[in-house]
Input
Amino acid sequence: MRSIDIHAHLTPQCFWRATTDNHDWHGLRREQDAQGHAYAVIGTQRQQLPPRAVWTPEQRLADMDSLGVDIHVVSPYSGFYNYHLESRIAIATSRDSNDEIRDMISQWPQRFAGLATLPMQDVPAAIAELERVMVQHGFKGAMIGDQINGRTLDDPQFLPFWKAAEQLGAMILFHQGGHTVVSPRIGRYHLPNSVGNLADRTITFATLVMGGVMDACPDLKICLSHGGGYTCYGIGRIDRNWHTRPDIRQLIPQPPSAYLRRFYYDCIVYTEASLRYLIDTVGVDRVVFGTDWPYDMAFDWPVSWILSLDSLTQDEKEAILWKNLERLLGL
Amino acid sequence: MRTIDMHTHLVPQCLWRTVDAGQPWYGLRAESGPGANTLVREGHHIHMPGAKMRFTPEQRLQDMDTEGTDVQVVSIHTPLFGYELEPAQGLQLARDVNDEIASMTRQWPQRFAGLATLPVQEVSAAITELERAVTTLGLKGAELGTVANQGLSWDEPHFLPLFKAAESMGAVLFFHPHPVDNLALARTDKYGISNSIGVPVEDALLVATLIFGGIFDACPALKVCIAHGGGPACFGMGRMDRGWQVRSEARLHIQKPPSTYQRHLYYDCVTNSEAALRFLIDQVGVDRVVLGSDWPFVSWDPSPGGWVQNLSSLSAAEKAKILWQNLEELLGL
Output
């Protein structure tokens, strides 16, 4: 039995190295508080980094061994999207971060695969970087945010990006960076993350579908992290909106639910009942293994959790843990 | 089998009389003159499509007879709350609306029950009006937005006396979001997403805010019902539990995981699919799920009660609880 994790982040070693002794990494800095917690500082934003974020690839491999995870499809740290900065900075940090993932893949090809980070505020540059890593370095795709400086990804400016991703066969993993739709309402109790991430992913599903991206790019591969958020549970109301509003109905030929199986969803839904519901709604061939390594929200024992679920058959467990991603990503 | 519907909206006749006479109703004017179904206040439009929005109580009763609904629990259409008004104006709006709802429940006590609207921009006035509504007018509680005035969340400490008062009166609080002007607009105004996704996310966030805010520890007997099945709160509760485990700020007010509080609340059955309703029942317990129709905005096949009756995954006992038993007990009907 293998296990392939599509949701495992990297805070690149080049950031840690560059920011020692108060130096900066393309303008990004690092601070430490009295308790020893590390923070990445980008302009006025200060984001805490979890203890495992500093780990080297060797330490990461040891942790993967302990967790029983064979392959990390390594994706960047969403705090370093840098979409709000000048594109030359995002281009530089993206290249550095992606080059580090490239080195991990080439040194441990049996243990790592790669998803790039891209300077999405500059669509031609994002396409060029995606092409570079896919063609030259064998990456499997990229991870991007649910919005780029306030624009959702159905905005016409991104269509060339989607066409390029489709043509390159890239898997695009959606993952929020920073604020979610919940953040302006309430910042307490971790709700911008625990509710907001799921709300954002649902809006991403709906905008890509009703914005026509999925029709324009029939071979596009998209994975919605955190189980696609509330998409599968809330699809009935999204369908009703399409059925009852002629202006929305004319946008796409089929109801939004007909597009559920055009997406992939990681298994990060935390409860067996919700995972079962996701599988029953989208099909087990659309659900893939993800852990959210190395954050505190990650599963403690992700492989064991899947294996322990009574309501999943052995075939379903294998599909989720490795077979779907093996087939999809050619691993 | 009895049918009691918790989730039915009212645009009060006092509003139509005023705007049709060319007068503003608490700042709201008919956009295109008398007879219009779009109201405007300071550039904000409230669309109320469909003839049913103007129904008199008698017309409403005919519609209920056609549907086979015995009792509607009536509350005002949420864009009409007027939380942004000056407190004195807000109180007067609430009194006008609540008096009209009470006139319906007094004239047809077997067919209508009522939920008040409250001027939450001044909590002391809201408490006074809730007390008048419950003790003098005989209403069953109040309807509140998923967000209070000025974008405030209900866990703000100054709202706690309102919840304490509702608890001591045995009043039911029914929470319902704005159908369009809600948190999803911060991301997009396209494709009707603020209604199709923003509304249930508002419901889920409200469930989360009340639970994490410690409202059910402070008011253990408080009766709360959430519209639209509480949105996807029950589906996403696992992530909230994980947040509670790993983040101290999530444990500020509650000593137990948020999922353990789910059964303190009631949820209507406006879940838009049988699978989602079955999931809700399995997570929160059938004692906590009640009939709601979202009248007159949603058309049910063949009717709100008929839709529930036809669900193959629910037992007859479960249907009876949802259709009437739970609300009969909760509201004392």
Observations:
- The two ends of chain A are 14 Å apart (CA to CA).
- The mean pLDDT of chain A is 97.
- The domain at 4-329 of chain A is CATH 3.20.20.140 (TIM Barrel).
